[in-house]
Write a structure and sequence with these properties.
Blueprint lengths: L16 H10 L8 E7 L2 E7 L8 E6 L2 E6 L20 E6 L4 E9 L2 E8 L15
Antiparallel strand pairs: 1-2, 2-7, 3-4, 4-5, 6-7
Length: 136
């Protein structure tokens, strides 16, 4: 007996990319920086990343092929700083989130060491189409 993959199910036409999206989402990285995802309204979401020690100019947010990518890299520190204990991570990071069709980035802001990225989902119009049956 042959096992069908999710994207190859006969009732799911045109969903072949779904498996690739799930694979991309599974490659989430090492867990740094920590983040929250919350629904702030029926069609609005907020991703919040803890980016203590990063400035706005140290961060970049891009959307690449329906994937939201947040990158952070701090500038070089001078030799005058001598840490006796360093518990605040300052390493470079890349965090990715796969966006569904119709989900767009509405904006981003920084507040108290937290990077907020607001997302909105546009609700598509319901379209009913009648197909005429012709003769060949």
């Amino acid at each position: 007996m042959t096992k069908l993959s999710f994207g190859a199910h006969p009732f799911l036409l045109g969903f072949e990319q779904l498996e690739r999206l799930v694979e991309r989402a599974a490659k989430s990285g090492d867990g740094y920086p920590p983040f929250n995802i919350e629904a702030v309204a029926e069609n609005a979401y907020r991703i919040t990343l803890a980016v203590a020690g990063f400035r706005e100019e140290d961060l970049s947010i891009t959307v690449e092929d329906r994937q939201l990518v947040v990158r952070g890299k701090q500038g070089e520190e001078g030799p005058e700083r001598v840490f006796l204990h360093r518990g605040i991570a300052s390493r470079a990071f890349q965090r990715s989130f796969v966006l569904a069709d119709g989900v767009e980035v509405a904006g981003a802001s920084m507040e108290h060491g937290l990077l907020h990225i607001d997302l909105k989902r546009s609700v598509p119009e319901t379209v009913v189409q009648t197909i005429r049956i012709g003769r060949k």
